[in-house]
Automatic annotation (TrEMBL):
<feature type="modified residue" description="N6-(pyridoxal phosphate)lysine">
    <location>
        <position position="218"/>
    </location>
</feature>
<keyword id="KW-0028">Amino-acid biosynthesis</keyword>
<dbReference type="InterPro" id="IPR006234">
    <property type="entry name" value="O-succ-hSer_sulfhydrylase"/>
</dbReference>
<comment type="similarity">
    <text>Belongs to the trans-sulfuration enzymes family. MetZ subfamily.</text>
</comment>
<protein>
    <recommendedName>
        <fullName>O-succinylhomoserine sulfhydrylase</fullName>
        <ecNumber>2.5.1.-</ecNumber>
    </recommendedName>
</protein>
<dbReference type="InterPro" id="IPR054542">
    <property type="entry name" value="Cys_met_metab_PP"/>
</dbReference>
<comment type="subunit">
    <text>Homotetramer.</text>
</comment>
<keyword id="KW-0663">Pyridoxal phosphate</keyword>
<dbReference type="InterPro" id="IPR015422">
    <property type="entry name" value="PyrdxlP-dep_Trfase_small"/>
</dbReference>
<dbReference type="InterPro" id="IPR015424">
    <property type="entry name" value="PyrdxlP-dep_Trfase"/>
</dbReference>
<dbReference type="InterPro" id="IPR000277">
    <property type="entry name" value="Cys/Met-Metab_PyrdxlP-dep_enz"/>
</dbReference>
<dbReference type="InterPro" id="IPR015421">
    <property type="entry name" value="PyrdxlP-dep_Trfase_major"/>
</dbReference>
<keyword id="KW-0808">Transferase</keyword>
<comment type="function">
    <text>Catalyzes the formation of L-homocysteine from O-succinyl-L-homoserine (OSHS) and hydrogen sulfide.</text>
</comment>
<keyword id="KW-0486">Methionine biosynthesis</keyword>
<comment type="pathway">
    <text>Amino-acid biosynthesis; L-methionine biosynthesis via de novo pathway; L-homocysteine from O-succinyl-L-homoserine: step 1/1.</text>
</comment>
<dbReference type="Pfam" id="PF01053">
    <property type="entry name" value="Cys_Met_Meta_PP"/>
</dbReference>
């Protein structure tokens, strides 16, 4: 590469690998020379004199004014996540939902249409149907692995295609490159909610997506502490989103950004450990006589296995399975656990277990549940980092004795 040396002189991390970027990118040291990233808990910034205040406010001079606009700790996080996703720019938000809302408000207008996978986070569906609809933005939901449905779902007003892969809870795997081609042929933008894989396992921008959305609340934090979100992509789109966030205020808290920065440093190690534990648990469940079916793309029997192996570097930490029986049997397995936490959160070192039909997907109508494969005997496990033998024993207690 001809200008590699030049670029390296300008940016010592130019060309660095993900593990290095995850630990090094974005840090700006203060005059104190701190080694770890500083936490700037301040709502506003002081100016040297009236002229400087005027210049900062007018934008003539770059620099901090107020933490709804910029904060050094949040900026460090944004630069780091952008580097990991291979994005030109990124902006932090107060939650994953705030990232989705801000993207839609900033990039869509009344009359526009969203084409969305049917298997997205439940609240995303509520946001699109109940709230965006009020402002004249309509949404069509399609079966995520049926590309004929995707193609037929476009209208001349489709501006945004929205997808999660692998999906929750059945781990459907969607071909990002194929969907990006369909989307671009119709002049729309493809947004991928990369929450389940994180950039440690999947880089949707490299596969043609235009925007990455994250709930940083999940694996980026990794220990279930803070709410946050991210929008990443080309600067021209991220700037639009940033403009909305600055005006409307769903800003990332500097404290949360600091926690996420620390989370990113161990992200790949954790994602690989989550994936290892999940694969072993999926294989064990698959062989269990009281389990009807396991949904995990790491199993060769899963429909999305080959695609996931191509588009992801590991299969992720979330799996689901159907026990033999119905709701009573599923609840029995859940209630017999003593280690796993009965909670809807995921992406935590602590394993979580949930009954989707009566919790995360409880708002769906019976037809919607049937369509999405959310049966009464389905259990979702977001596999944490505890000892795998203990996790098997925790499920065996309820699976073995009905
Ligand atoms: C949790 C989640 C969200 C929403 O994120 P919050 O931080 O809870 O607002 C969006 N998408 C996916 C895939 C999620 O799991």
């Amino acid at each position: 590469m001809e200008n590699f040396d030049e670029q390296l002189a300008e940016d010592p991390l130019f060309g660095a690998a993900l593990d290095t970027l995850a630990i090094r990118v974005g840090q700006s040291r203060s005059h104190e020379g701190e080694h770890s990233e500083a936490l700037f808990l301040t709502s506003s910034y002081v100016f040297a004199n009236a002229q400087e205040a005027a210049d900062r406010f007018s934008g003539e001079q770059p620099g901090n004014v107020y933490s709804r606009y910029t904060n050094p700790t949040v900026r460090m996080f944004e630069e780091r996540i952008a580097a990991l996703e291979g994005a030109e720019s990124a902006v932090g938000t107060s939650s994953g939902m705030a990232a989705i809302l801000s993207t839609c408000i900033a990039l869509l207008k009344s009359g526009d249409h969203i084409l969305c996978s049917r298997s997205v986070f439940g609240t995303t569906t509520v946001l699109f149907t109940k709230y965006l609809q009020k402002f004249g933005v309509t949404t069509t939901f399609v079966n995520p692995t049926n590309y004929v449905e995707w193609e037929g779902g476009f209208t001349e007003n489709t501006k945004l295609v929205f997808v999660e892969t692998p999906s929750n809870p059945l781990c459907d795997v969607i071909d990002i490159q194929r969907l990006a081609d369909l989307t671009h042929a119709r002049g729309a933008l493809l947004a991928v909610d990369n929450c389940f894989c994180t950039p440690a396992l999947q880089k949707p921008l490299e596969l043609g997506a235009d925007l990455i959305i994250h709930s940083a609340t999940k694996y980026i934090d990794g220990q279930g502490r803070c709410l946050g979100g991210v929008v990443a992509g080309a600067k021209k789109y991220v700037d639009e989103v940033l403009g909305f966030i600055r005006s409307a205020g769903p800003t990332m808290s500097p404290f949360n950004a600091w926690v996420f920065l620390k989370g990113l440093e161990t992200l790949r190690l954790r994602m690989e450990a989550h994936s290892r534990n999940a694969l072993e648990l999926a294989q064990w469940l698959n062989a269990h006589p009281n389990v009807e079916k396991v949904f995990y793309a790491g199993l060769p029997s899963h429909l999305g296995h080959e695609l996931a192996a191509k588009q992801q570097s590991a299969f992720g930490g979330v799996l689901s399975f159907r026990v033999k029986g119905g709701r009573a049997e599923a609840w029995k397995v859940i209630d017999a656990t003593r280690i796993m936490s009965l909670t809807a959160n995921l992406g935590d070192t602590k394993t979580t277990i949930v009954h989707p039909a009566t919790t995360t997907h409880g708002r769906l109508s019976p037809e919607q549940k049937a369509d999405a494969g959310i049966t009464e005997n389905l259990i979702r496990v977001a596999v944490g980092l505890e000892d795998i033998g203990d996790l098997k024993a925790d499920l065996a207690r309820g699976l073995g004795n009905y």
